[in-house]
Amino acid sequence: MKKILFLTGDYAEDYETMVPFQMLSMVGFEVHAVCPGKKKGEKVRTAIHDFEGEQTYSEKPGHYFTLTYDFDQVQPENYDGLYIVGGRAPEYLRLNERLLEMVKHFFQTQKPVAAICHGIQILTAAGVVNGRYLTAYPAVAPEVTLAGGKFQNVPMDAVVVDANLVTGPAWPAHPALMRSYLQLLKVQITTS
After folding, report:
1. How many structural domains comprise the chain?
2. Residue 54: what pLDDT?
3. Are 82 and 47 in contact (CB under 8 A)?
4. Is residue 63 part of a domain?
5. Catalytic residue of the set 32, 35, 49, 117
6. Is residue 190 in a domain?
7. Is 117 a catalytic residue?
8. Which residue positions in the chain have pLDDT lower than 70?
9. Is residue 191 part of a domain?
10. Is the CB of residue 119 less than 8 Å from the CB of residue 150?
11. Of these residues, 32, 49, 118, 174, which one is catalytic?
12. What is this structure's pTM?
């Protein structure tokens, strides 16, 4: 069974946490959802971001999400892919040096990586976007550019794939993001 390292934290976006976790589990992956400083069975609080006509997204309390693995036990070489959620969690998760080293491992080994929305802030902090084509929530575009990435302004339901990396701007991109990520993981889903 393939294993996915799933990075989340307090005030990660609710849909960007729950939906991909459930989808990856549904297709048969063992998904290790982790957060620095927390252990298996502990919870993170999520936030719901919505697009309601204002100049930026609104934020409402989300669900509690139960972590499935201890952060301190993670050995990146034991995983087939990395998934990074969005929301507000990435702004503080990117301050954890061990987490950034884990992220670098997936780029050094060319393993599949998916990141959505503000999750790209972790990629910029890890120094892995230089010369890469990617997208993110539009407010993260300056960080991508400053880190040497080639920001692509795409619709909210679209993604950008560059080698082992697939990125999306926000949760409306889930169908395209998951489809592309599963292709990178060499998972084939057929319908009859």
Report:
1. 1
2. 86
3. no
4. yes
5. 117
6. no
7. yes
8. none
9. no
10. no
11. 118
12. 0.96
For residues 41 and 18, what is the distance between their CA atoms, to the nearest angstrom?
A: 15
Distance CA 77, CA 57 (A): 36
**How far, in Å, CA of 111 to CA of 184, rounded?**
8
pLDDT at 192: 75
Q: How many CB atoms lie within 10 A of CB 2?
A: 16
What's the pLDDT tens digit per position in 151-167? 999 999 999 999 999 99
CATH number, domain with residue 58: 3.40.50.880
What whole-number distance in Å separates Cα of residue 126 and Cα of residue 101?
A: 7
Q: Is residue 192 included in any domain, yes or no?
A: no
pLDDT for 111: 98
Q: Could you tell me if 92 and 121 are in contact, meaning their C-beta atoms sit under 8 angstroms apart?
A: no
Domain extent at residue 104: 3-184
The SS3 call for residue 2 is: coil
Give the total residue count for the chain. Answer: 192
